[in-house]
Amino acid sequence: MKKLLFPFFIFLFMGYQLQAQKLSRTEQKIIQKVKSLEGESIAFLEKVVNINSGTLNQEGVKAVGTEFDKAFSEIGFATQWIAMPEEMNRAGHLFASLDGDKGKKLLLIGHLDTVFEENSPFQQFERINDSMAYGPGANDMKGGDVVVLYALKALSELNLLKKASITVAFTGDEESTGKPLSISRKSLIEAGKKADIALGFETATGFNNATIARRGASGWRVETQGKRAHSSGVFNDRVGAGAIFEMSRILNAFYEDVRGEEYLTFNPGTLLGGTFVEYDKQTSSGSVFGKTNVVAQKAVVNGGLRFISEEQKETARAKMREIVSQSLPQTSSSITFTDSYPAMGPTEGNQALLEVLSQVSEDLGFGAVTGYDPGRRGAADISFVADYTDGLDGLGTMGSGAHTPQETVNLKTINALIQRAAVLIYRLTR
Length: 430
Fold this sequence. Notes:
Layout: H1 9-13, H2 25-36, H3 38-49, H4 58-74, E1 78-83, E2 92-99, E3 102-111, E4 126-127, E5 132-134, H5 138-157, E6 164-171, H6 181-184, H7 186-194, E7 197-200, E8 209-210, E9 216-225, H8 243-258, E10 265-274, E11 276-280, E12 285-289, E13 298-307, H9 310-324, E14 332-341, H10 348-363, E15 370-371, E16 390-392, E17 399-400, E18 408-410, H11 411-428
Parallel strand pairs: 3-6, 3-7, 7-16, 8-15
Antiparallel strand pairs: 1-2, 2-6, 4-5, 5-18, 9-13, 9-14, 10-13, 11-12, 17-18
Helix pairs in contact: 2-11, 3-5, 5-11, 8-9
């Protein structure tokens, strides 16, 4: 892994301005404009949170997309809904763009979907007090989408986007990506290849943190087969160990021999074993039949793997394959892997962008911004473009309890985060 510290001249080489500066007159106007939009931005957030957009609720995802489509159109962006093939069971993505030629070409990334499907009891935006509100996806990440929209709205109303080159990409399936990825992430990757900078507005990890690296995510599945027989014969040469003991051996070896490398984690999420096993990938649920006096015939584990680089991922996979190949007597095993999110490595370009953001934050009086530990962040859409452009993530709203019925969004910090995003975008598009 590359070290994050590097000489000062690299900032100038990469075209980023890092000199200390106070807010210009124009930037002071930006701040005042953002402040004037505070009530409107929170009202818009409440409106879109109250539209269910669980990933599998295609109509709901489209409905949220429609609200943002109207809003971006009103500030001069050309919008496009990119539909997915019907068999993928995903709604599609909203893209909005300005095709100027001034400053850095920016890609601003968000997502419209949430983990809360139509059958979830958690459906409504509810204010707790002046500072906090509950809401499904209010923080992850409709709040981040609102930061994008209102930062751009403020700049647009001050006529500061006329020559800017900005693409907004709000995906409709970030919480459960449509497969194949070659289709569901094609437009995002194409946009990343054209961009100079990608900014992700996933949930903030703290007001003075941003993300310069995120781990990738990969799925894995182990299947073991044993010899079905009366349990009185287990362990003898004819019957062997059975599928469940074989699975236990594999999982224990993963824990002992693969675990330990920095940023590498793997988790078995479901485990089924017995005489007969059925597992439904669509619902992540299954059933088993077996008896204590019958040696298990089959076992299945589905898990996830997190990694900071492709090299780390492939090294871990090789170790896992080797372990699986060493079967106990009268058993056989196999492992398969499914790619999902690539890693976003901690590059020098990302670090340079972090310094630009930190300078903006200090000029606003908000304090310096530091990089957040990638081991504590999940995967996100910005990772799909990390190989093609410099990037920062974690620029969205603050809150707690994401992916739970206690998800909150911090209402008091939204406007300040929009201010910071607006000034950052303004400086980058100069």
